[in-house]
Predict the structure.
Amino acid sequence: MPVPERPKRKRRADMGLAGMGFDLAASVGVAAALGWWIDRRYDTAPWGLVVCALIGIVGGLYNFAKAGKKAQDRARRERERGKSRD
């Protein structure tokens, strides 16, 4: 049985949500790499890595939550728009 084609708008929204995980991992990875570099440069091991990784985790989770809230609000508006047409 063929799967019905999803509208392009819905697929685009799904890809945006899929990218949220990559954004979280990238922010932690970049911050950890910066911390590793700071440790190597200033001989502060392991504090540069720990502090920068924590900053990356907090920043990544903040962006993750913000994007999730935005997607949730968008879905709520679309549901309300659909109800008003009924």
Remarks:
- Residues 4 and 20 are 26 Å apart (CA to CA).
- Residues 22-85 form one domain.
